[in-house]
């Protein structure tokens, strides 16, 4: 099955990054389950040709535009019944900031996940969300969740939001932030995926302030994945009920938010953590074990 990409706003300053997602290949890897498939996912994500590609765009139009890629599950060609796994990022940036980190980085990792998974059959529906108008108040994501029927909402396994996932700013760490500070299925899958590749740096605490909030508000499990100098109230990294404070990198919402200030290593970690979680959920070639 091809990945359907809907380009509702093909030109102008608010144009999305160029989406070129390839179609399925006939070869299905034989997965043994256990840790074997996790090694395979990492190998796949690490391969040279799987280079991250990121472009930038600038938010100038308060109307914004959502760009949603949908790939139906095997056995559900009409896309009416399979569970839905969604990854999201926002495609706008603030005026005056090119938005390489905020949030072309998130879109780059989203598209890489889509491209890798395009080569395999899926037993869940994969949705890639490029949300407009995030900086104006989560406008695109709120509009998007409002288009979902109750039946469609009920099919959601979760939404993995990536916003600012590539800063080289040294104090930043990878956080899984939820609007209520509680862990959920989306967070837990990310922890599991990190553990499978030997990354134990992920922490969970409380924050809204990105598109995951819109999903949370309608009862869909979601989390924001973000490299941020986030400071939980209770050391040494325990999340209290009110959440913490944070300090942003110097490039945040500035003209210096350019590709010069993007860390490939942190993009790769994000890809391992979020891509690994999504692959574990969506690939029917992967044996899901307890
Ligand atoms: N929505 C925020 C933004 O795009 C993401 C963010 C959250 C930034 C928390 C900083 C701190 O600017
Ligand atoms: Zn921003
Ligand atoms: Zn952002
Ligand atoms: Zn597993």
UniProtKB/TrEMBL annotation:
<protein>
    <recommendedName>
        <fullName>PA domain-containing protein</fullName>
    </recommendedName>
</protein>
<feature type="domain" description="Peptidase M28">
    <location>
        <begin position="81"/>
        <end position="274"/>
    </location>
</feature>
